[in-house]
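Troubleshooting log. The previous run stalled partway through. Resubmitting the same two chains, unchanged.
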Amino acid sequence: ETGVTQSPTHLIKTRGQQVTLRCSSQSGHNTVSWYQQALGQGPQFIFQYYREEENGRGNFPPRFSGLQFPNYSSELNVNALELDDSALYLCASSSPGQGAGNEQFFGPGTRLTVL
Amino acid sequence: AQTVTQSQPEMSVQEAETVTLSCTYDTSENNYYLFWYKQPPSRQMILVIRQEAYKQQNATENRFSVNFQKAAKSFSLKISDSQLGDTAMYFCAFVISGNTPLVFGKGTRLSVIA
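Second attempt completed without errors. Output:
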């Protein structure tokens, strides 16, 4: 069973640029959630994709957008980068109906630095 | 809105000793799940233990156990026989049900000292 993978591991961008982060969900999982973890903070929910449709969104502006593909992998896109977007971006996959309290399996994250 | 509060930003414990991390949460829901996640320096979030709100019995997982007090909305984590590998950030998290997102606390940095 393959776990959740994310790419790239690290990324450095400048203000105003655009970035795309990628996530491959765990085998058998059709739901992907994205979280932003600022330094010293807990993860904050950005949005979730279920079967290629956005299925909930946290308090993030529209310049944060995403996609989910037929194989359930996902992308997070951030436009017009701001310094405050510097954070660890975590992807988590899950599958409704598998019970066990909706356990979400996390990837290792992408560290984004905006200069 | 659901919130999770971890009041201990940092804690330390001697190897082989026991430590308890605190967590309180706020929700008007009756059915939900609570989790403790561990995030070592490698950054990967790892599930430590899970508790279903409808179960009165406290969850245990080897050296890890919880004290779940539903009325007080409290969910503390006890780590027994602490090991150096337990050094990490620990996050308390909450989810209602269905495919809803996790709500995390700000975390507690635990250092296990040899």
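Takeaways: Chain B touches chain A through 26 residues (CB under 8 Å). Chain B is about 0% helix and 50% strand.
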